[in-house]
Amino acid sequence: MATGLLPLRLLQIGFEATILSGAVAATKKVIGRAGVMPQIDWDAEDFPRGVRMPTDEITAVRRGNEITIEADLDTEQILWPLSSGLQEGTITGIGPYVYTHSLVTAPTLRSLTAEFVVDDNATKHYQREFPACLTREFTISAERNQMAKLAWTMFGRAEATSTVTAGLSAVTRTRIPANLFILYIDATWAGRGVTAKTGTLRGFTLTVPTGILPDYTLDGRTDYDFVTQAYQLSRPQLVLRANHNANMATEIGNWRTGTRRYVQLKATQGAGAAERTLVIDLSLRLVSWTFGDEDGQETVESTWEVVYDTTGTQGMQIVVTNGLATLANL
Q1: What is the pTM of this model?
Q2: Which of 156, 174, 250, 276 is deepest in the core (most CB within 10 A)?
Q3: Which helix (H) or strand (E) holds 279?
Q4: Residue 247 and residue 185: Cα distance in Å, rounded?
Q5: Exposed/middle/buried for residue 273 (C-beta within 10 Å: 0-12, 13-18, 19+)
Q6: Cβ–Cβ contacts within 10 Å for residue 169, how many?
Q7: Contact 329, 97 (CB under 8 A)
Q8: How far apart are CA 74 and CA 148, in angstroms?
Q9: What Å distances lie between residue 267 and 53, 139, 180, 182, 278, CA to CA?
């Protein structure tokens, strides 16, 4: 019997009609490395019964799933974690199309149905469906001279038997080389994206715990999974790796005074109808930094916390420009 081939591992995703509205057939293949972990909590009854070993009397009390995905960063697949974890977003434009996602108190989200397959080209050893998936955390990262990366983790309801949707295509995407990003740091939200800090940024990692989690309640669900979602405090964090030049010396000075800063990270490709752009706007407080060195140069690694801002979109906004007229195109 052949072993499953890693290149044949398959994850497919489809947007559900509305949040947690029920499983749908997948619509697109995901380009990335995916891992799935179905979850079952078993209760082993261990009251005294005259023996000195555990018995095989167990009962499931909770079910769910967790899915992790690692991929190159692009201006298309990023809509999956943004729409299922941050906010469904507003769409403007007539081609290219602009998707605006903000961290808001009561977001409108879209859940996903995932189909996962492990295959050896003859037998599908594992073929299951995972409905009601929402994003728990996503990470955007970039290192100079490499492709930028996107990773995200989803939770969902109990797995179900499924036949994978056949004949799907992969997403037509525009990957983002890390060197395309430009760093801006300004003094106000309204003035963000004005002051470019050239010759400074070497890499960054933005980690966004969405604050969304499954809310398990007693509702007679025979799958023992959750009915709805709950919200916790979201604490996004940005780490910048930069040359220790005058730009970073200024930011260390702002750290000493506790001065709020407004950072924009922007990558643009193409123009007109072919424009593909990712813009990350953040209201930040520098919380710590350390000296370093790379290639014989002094560097600084700084950690920033996203903080609520009444003048902006509550502190974080991610804008994606691509050629997708609606989420139905994913």
Answers
A1: 0.96
A2: 156
A3: strand 276-294
A4: 9
A5: exposed
A6: 8
A7: no
A8: 8
A9: 61, 16, 5, 6, 5
